[in-house]
Amino acid sequence: MTATRIDAALIRRLPKAVLHDHLDGGLRPATLVELAGEAGHTLPTTDPDELAAWYYEAANSGDLVRYIATFAHTLAVLQTREGLLRAAEEYVLDLAADGVVYGEVRYAPELNTDGGLTLAEVVETVQEGLAAGMAKAAAAGTPVRVGTLLCGMRMFDRVREAADLAVAFRDAGVVGFDIAGAEDGFPPADHLDAFAHLRRENVPFTIHAGEAHGLPSIHQAVQVCGAQRIGHGVRITDDIVDGKLGRLAGWVRDRRIALEMCPTSNLQTGAASSIAEHPVTALRELGFRVTLNTDNRLVSGTTMTREMSLLVEQAGWGVEDLRTVTVNALKSAFIPFDERTALIEDVVLPGYAAAL
Question: What is the value of pTM for the model shown?
Fold first, then answer.
């Protein structure tokens, strides 16, 4: 690691990439208050600052199920075309303001149909909002490329429908697929038909695994379902003893299966004990393709700048370490190789070279 001293202002200027970020977990507090008022939905408070604090405190339960329960309020305001358009556009603008040059946003369309929108209409609306945000960001001189991951909720029965949507919209901004929701008790192998369909149709996918459940969930995601990336994956450390990798950990590292690590979120759900001891540092040093992510910016009260700053301050990271995870993310992004290469060579590496 480098000893370069950096502060939040410099980190904010660095080009960043985020692969694991949920649309319904990243609304602006003021937007949530306004949309809730229009929808007649009651929030814990209508003061944006107090609401942001409520979310952060409510999520600090150390329990994934309770963490997920905080999404009831954001989902309540994402049931209309207007709400989805605004959330998607602001999502992009917030990434651009944080120095993100590539982002993948994920959400489950089945959770946005209570207002009468069809699954396809939900996807079309979100893509329209994302496109508007990218156009505004480019016009402001802070371009950001955003791809969409559609999620199936692993505890429900519409995962195959979500996979079909990913196939249908893969040429309209959707770059991949995921399953989300409560991990323990809902193994990824329950949805083998969806993953087989995605493989047949050449649609890449990631799977939430190794967060609330251990090595069996990672093994299923990778070896049974065929995931190209792992959402979180912190429990891969259970297969590493005194720096020696077990067979599963070795497979994940050697085949460059990216780990979408989310330090603040992992602390909140009890998947990690501290930023200083978060597995992302040790796994990076062992050569795993680790990436750094926000997961849910509202729920976790975070940004990419904050996640990077925490690792600099509490885990001794330097600019070179931040560059490594950024390049890792782009290498594993679900967009074509030439686009990934261009972002790395033309945007990320020059940006970090200027900082060094």
Answer: 0.94
